[in-house]
């Protein structure tokens, strides 16, 4: 029985570390670019779009800011839909078995 208690403690510790890692990923920012830097996208470690920059020479000064906001919104909308489909697929795989709080798949 002592081993079971140790396993539960280890599982709780691991869950806490996983939550800390997920929280730190939200603060991480990674920039991707194309067109020699004319278009840049900044995502956080969870894959959520934070910023988009489109060089105004591609679309005109006035349109660039609106286009950037629309691209961020479209990326995040697609990401939300991917997460929903992944949750549905995971639910099918686990037979509807709920995961413990704090455990999110896919990671």
Describe the structure.
The chain is an alpha+beta fold and 107 residues long. It has a domain at 26-94: Ybab, Chain: A (2-Layer Sandwich), CATH 3.30.1310. 60% of the residues lie in helices and 17% in strands. The chain is built from 3 helices and 3 strands, in the order αβββαα. It has a 3-stranded antiparallel beta sheet with strand order 1-2-3. β2 (39-44) and β3 form a beta hairpin. The longest helix is centred in the last third of the chain and has 34 residues, at 61-94. The radius of gyration is 20 Å and the shape is elongated. The chain starts with a helix and ends in a 13-residue tail after the last helix.
């Amino acid at each position: 029985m002592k081993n079971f208690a140790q396993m539960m403690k280890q599982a709780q510790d691991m869950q806490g570390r996983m939550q800390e890692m997920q929280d730190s990923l939200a603060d991480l920012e990674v920039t991707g670019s194309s067109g020699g830097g004319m278009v840049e996208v900044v995502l956080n470690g969870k894959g959520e779009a934070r910023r988009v920059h489109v060089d105004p020479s591609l679309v005109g000064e006035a349109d660039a800011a609106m286009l950037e906001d629309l691209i961020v919104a479209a990326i995040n909308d697609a990401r939300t839909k991917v997460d929903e489909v992944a949750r549905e697929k995971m639910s099918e795989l686990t037979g509807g078995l709920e995961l413990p709080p704090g455990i999110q798949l896919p990671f």
